[in-house]
């Protein structure tokens, strides 16, 4: 990097209030930041040495210029002239090579630190409970993983190196200027402060305009994302909101026109101010050098050398004046990333896990005195639940929306841990199992199907990376979706599209079922797994699931009571409590809550006639 690189464009900045608020909320000890670079301490030390060497070597150029003007040319000393000119070329070449090596080293260190942080944050977030992601906006998670960690690259390759280079350049330049002429050095100390103040003031004006422009650009991008995505276009067409969205976009774009003009004018004013400063200071130096009272017998070579040094002083000095802003911005980035790294892991592997062979699991599931309250819940979602599901049988959970069905099932997959009591499989508390082991034992098909933007084959193989093509096809046949896949242009190699938009809701559900069947879990949780299927398809998939359920424990959640009629046991939940339990015939004959749900259900006739 060149001396003072990157500082001129950032001069005059003010501390972003958001950065200050971030550090107040989550302060970052400096030792924690330096610890990230400890494995690369020798590379960092080498970068510092290269910066100091590059700045020191570059200071030789003005003295060589003075030698040429005052000695070589007046004396017609060709040897001295060639030597001085060769020295200038050598200085330029050496600083260029040092700069390349410095950039390579600092970029390598920065990228390695970023890689470590990026993978650590990703792995840590993977261990967070489902509740964290329901409370946190997806865009914020992505921003911290990409923008914030990406911004840290500048901490090493720009911020830190620029600060070191600027400091070295300023100190070395001031010493060289004093050595050339202490009188003109005093003049510079008087002229520089008002010139710097003027430049910073103009830069602050531009920053205010730029901030407004960025906010409007963010609004514009948000409108593009919302209005031109698949879901956004579908919503606009079905609601007839397209013209209104176009008018809103046009208004934001119109505001952006004015801000762009103001931003460009502010930038032009800033450049004009910088030009005046760069031209004005050397002019004053020439004036004072020409006055008998202040020249002190200065030679032409000394004057040229001094003005060269003076020109090299302004930008690094401006960079040093922005140290506080630069450090605050950099530390705010670390603070935001460390906030995620410091999040407690609510659902984690036990310190001493119980060894359990997934292939040997029978599949008995038991809730014992289970209660659960969400962190922001006003009342318990579950209370005093005692239910046992014998291995290989089917349990159906029935109840109105909000009764606790999905919460009860989610505890089996350990998407959350019970507040009280315990959930066990084959008598082993789930909290004593490794999460990877539990994932092999319990399979979940939820009502919200998520497909990767990849081929059908890759989506299915995501459940079991080692599965063969024959096993993938067999799972698809059992889920009644093979014929749909085979009819696609590229068969199993067809890309499903963003969020699986290529498929209907029922087809996506069947793909999700095939994916779970490929994993072959001993315990199967079906959370509204057939909610998106039409009656004919539902019956086909239900038949496939009946076949797949043999020898495994199945927990089914459904609002459509026809899907749970043949369950070995039906549990009726109300306000988080078990109010009834039994078979379909027993519960219907009892005339209680289940019978009321059957009577009120839209598909009651199907249920009774089946």
Automatic annotation (TrEMBL):
GO molecular function, one term: ATP hydrolysis activity
PROSITE patterns: ABC_TM1F, ABC_TRANSPORTER_1, ABC_TRANSPORTER_2
Membrane topology category: Multi-pass membrane protein
Keywords of this entry: ATP-binding, Cell inner membrane, Cell membrane, Membrane, Nucleotide-binding, Transmembrane, Transmembrane helix, Transport
Alphabetical list of InterPro entries matching this protein: AAA+_ATPase, ABC1_TM_dom, ABC1_TM_sf, ABC_transporter-like_ATP-bd, ABC_transporter-like_CS, P-loop_NTPase, Type_1_exporter
Sequence intervals crossing the membrane: 42-68, 80-105, 180-198, 272-293
Residue ranges constituting the ABC transmembrane type-1 domain according to the UniProt record: 45-329
GO cellular component: plasma membrane
The ABC transporter domain, residue ranges: 365-600
Entry's localization field: Cell inner membrane
Pfam families, A to Z: ABC_membrane, ABC_tran
Main localization of the protein described in the UniProt heading: membrane
PANTHER family, sorted: ATP-BINDING CASSETTE SUB-FAMILY B MEMBER 10, MITOCHONDRIAL, ATP-DEPENDENT PERMEASE MDL1, MITOCHONDRIAL
Protein family (similarity comment): Belongs to the ABC transporter superfamily. Siderophore-Fe(3+) uptake transporter (SIUT) (TC 3.A.1.21) family.
Name of protein: ATP-binding cassette, subfamily B
Organism: Geodermatophilus nigrescens
